[in-house]
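Quick one: structure for this chain?
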Amino acid sequence: MIKKDAQRSLEKKLGYRFKEKAHLETALTHPSYRHENSGVLADNQRLEFLGDAALGLAAAADLYRRFETVDEGALTHKRSKLTNRTTLARIGRELEIGDHLRLGRGEERSGGRQRDSNLTDAVEALIGAVFLDGGQKAVERVYQRLWRTDLADIVAADMDNPKGALQEFCQKHWKTSPSYEIEAQSGPAHERTYVCVARVQGEKRGTGRGTNKRAAEMEAAREALMALEKEH
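Got it. Here's what it folds into:
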């Protein structure tokens, strides 16, 4: 059994109190612990499966509401950033979930409490446990609490720094950087309009217009990023 003070500590960080404490205990039970203890009948693998689906739905619904003009491909990319293993492992560390895991002796000795895969699986299992205990609305509340920093980063990248987001995307996929060129400009000096092209690997991927070069580059980057996210 997990100690009551440990349960309360984790529930406080989650922002959710379990009605059925058994759900929480199962979410924190690594398969190695079940294999070494014949009286333990369940581990967190099934809850991990459920939590992955519940978290994906919570993230998808939230992004759908936040980004009303963003297409399916871009939304899928944003959801992936919110639910990938890097993000989940970081959240697991913020929750100090490793301190609460029930591990087998071998897993314990090999550093399993801080292993990214164990933290990731446990976070997904916790979400699955919340779903079983309180339904999807409870999952959405936990999601809003634990993922608020990641959501803020995504909103900021989309709204304020499309060039930075495009740079990150290009580095991730091709280890290269986009380039920008002013294709045209028109109007009097005090009312100039610039047309910028964003190129990725030499190929034109976005076009933007603005009253200065920076604004035109931002719009070109945003268009290029949306096109590339849709393809990937």
